[in-house]
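cron nightly-structures :: item 1 of 1
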Amino acid sequence: MNRRRKPVIAPGADEPRRSMRRVLLLAAGAWLTLARAGAVCAQPKQPAILIGWLLVQSRESGGHYLAAFKEGLEALGWKDGSQILIEERWADGQYDRLGPLAEDLAARKPTLIVAAPSQSVAAAKSAAPTIPIVLADGADPVAAGFATSLAQPGGLITGLSNVATDISEKSLELLLAAVPKLKRIGFLTDSGHMYRAAFMQAAHRSVAQRSVEARFAEVARPEEIEPAISRLAKEGARALVVMSSPMLSSERRRIVKLALSHRWAVIGPQREFAEEGALLSYGADASANFRRAAYYVDRILKGAKPADIPIEQPTKFELVINGKTATTLGVKIPNSILVRADKVIK
């Protein structure tokens, strides 16, 4: 029987075939990896959540509030520019711009709107009645008709209330404690503020309890501030109480500069006034409110209903003293006031 002999393969003769198989396998693996990567890249990105932002201040005067809000969001794990996008609208201290800005913002169809103060909330509510709104810093939302109660808002608006109608009373008390010899004091108020009447009543009540004369000047627009302060100077005012108002806060640098040109001691409703050179400031920490507003945004984005999230009120009010201004004005702040200060600018 004839048996077929197996071909004799010289050592190493089959190596080219094995090498070729390895090359083909590697190429196939690389192609598969690239194909998978391409498929992942081809998947559409999850669109960022659009958050509306409507403030009556200018970006220059209110930018630190936006920064505080973003800090609050980041602390809760929300990244600005990737997970969320903030569509900003600023009214530059002019209430009559809020309506058109709110309409423009509503057309962008944000998931929710962060607004301050109450006038901004009213504009946003009118322009976007079906979009949740977070009040970042504003007056009594129940009195304004935004909520049924603080504990149970009952609608699409929740957030932080900053009821400051009695601030003018406390401000006058602190101003007189710092500069006891004052006899005639000017009050600068915003005629367009939602709670103007309540502020004025509180101021008159405070003046009646003390041996001082008061002169009042009301302004509706930023360009009216300089004539108003000149009028107060002609009427013999020797100090100035700036009453709570987003428009006046936006113009704090101008107000303080004009007041200091008359060598007036000034007290404003936010710490930013003292930082601009006012002798004193007293009020709730607005930046803390905007930082806290991020909590409300986080809750709503995670499915909570605004109607069920209680509205918070500020629990801490801060007194800031500008020591440099005191020196410039020749005012010696009593120790009884210094020890109460949350911050003294030196």
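cron nightly-structures :: done
The first strand starts at residue 49 and ends at 55.
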